[in-house]
Amino acid sequence: MKNIAQDVQDFLHRSRDSHVRIAVTGLSRAGKTAFITSLVNQLLYSATHDNLPLLSVARERRMIGAKREPQTNLMVPRFGYDEAMSQLLSTPPQWPEPTRDVSEIRLALKYKPQKTSKKLLGKTATLHLDLIDYPGEWLLDLPLLEMDFATWSSAQWTLLTGKRAELSQPFQDAVAKLDLDAEVDEAALERIAQCFTDYLLACKTAGLHWVQPGRFVLPGELAGAPVLQFFPVTFDSERKVIKNSNLAVLIARYKQYQDKVVKAFYKHHFATFDRQIVLVDCLQPLNIGADAFFDMRSAIEQLMRSFRYGRSGLLSRLFAPKIDKVLFAATKADHVTPDQHGNLVSLLQQMVHPAWQTAAFDNIEMNCMSMASVTATQSGFIATKAGQQAAIQGTTLTGEPLTLFPGEVPKRLPEPSYWQQHGFEFVSFQPLAVEDTTPLNHIRVDKALEYLIGDKLA
Ligand SMILES: Nc1nc2c(ncn2[C@@H]2O[C@H](COP(=O)(O)OP(=O)(O)OP(=O)(O)O)[C@@H](O)[C@H]2O)c(=O)[nH]1
Ligand SMILES: [Mg+2]
């Protein structure tokens, strides 16, 4: 539990422009952990290296130094920066593990202010920066707060077409045998919830992102708890719910899940953020195929709809965060040649267009860019019969050196013909090796930082 003195101090810091909380949002595997690790790493090196030329405070040599600080919320585990770094620095270099639980990190950035108001307070100033990391799956539960059990159930059943119909067959067979009005059968509910979880896991393996409820696939400390033992059923919302029936218990558990799990997560971690970065990996689904690509687009759209920033938005109604800037970043830009970065940004703009419009309407500043938190390739040119061709070079996860032109990134949402041509080749590479005395290689993390905190370091 945060103590009151700390709360008051946080409040004073925030009001003096010396504290900022950044919500790092993104679906699973979007690159949140890599981004937070790189951001911390880059800032820790920024006073001694020229690694952040696009961040004014660093370019103008006003950065004095950065250090990790004890976080204020003692109930949340510390972000595993050292663990992530030791994986990136190992031989061969490895990517950090997928995130299984929520964690937090706080940095103090000491700098020489330019602003007269800050100068009056002293020759140096400190900005405290809070970041949290969590499994991307948990984010998908936000839209669930706006639906009752009947609405959620029906939305889930509507999804069961095509690939999802096939993957969910065992679940559909199991649920068909359940009598909703009969007295609750806990064991049956547990069994069917497991079938539903297996279906969600199969969706993930097939590259589909819209997987709800998020805790079913990554339960954290709730593994095995009855609050995770519900599933969507088809029923008429007018239907009379018999006390202590299977249906009554499903409804109650869903409600508990909304209140005790989802709402609690957002309340503790998203209630007070000031700025948001939304990380999107457009490339991986482009590689898997149309289903995965449009599934991800719809996941992002639904998510951003719930994040609606204006006063009418769900989060605003629940917790009133004072968000004033949002940055959309296409991650893993080092997977394409630099001439494709422009296309990557236009594709991202198209993907997030609805969210962008809403936010613009509510006067929130927004921007789109492409970035690589930790680069895994080097770009260059190779000679071909047709002349010089842009290419990237890296080491695959199995240790093979590889040079390739991964393909053109479509500027717009791809037409059906795109998928027939198999336009894009996404290969996973090891991160580039660095010494433990130099910062990680990145592309435009400094531009992201300038947008997110540049003004706070003026
Ligand atoms: N080439 C390249 N690959 C990246 C970069 N960032 C992330 N990746 C790849 O994407 C994978 C997922 O990145 P994470 O940072 O773990 O993603 P996450 O959003 O934290 O994922 P969850 O914890 O599962 O929600 C990594 O294991 C890398 O393979 C990047 O900047 N460049
Ligand atoms: Mg992660």
Automatic annotation (TrEMBL):
Q: Which domain of life is it from?
A: Bacteria
What SUPFAM superfamilies has UniProt attached to this entry?
P-loop containing nucleoside triphosphate hydrolases (SSF52540)
User: Which parts of the chain are coiled coil?
Assistant: none
Question: Which Pfam families does this chain map to?
Answer: DUF463
Provide the protein name.
Answer: YcjX family protein
Lineage of origin: Bacteria, Pseudomonadati, Pseudomonadota, Gammaproteobacteria, Vibrionales
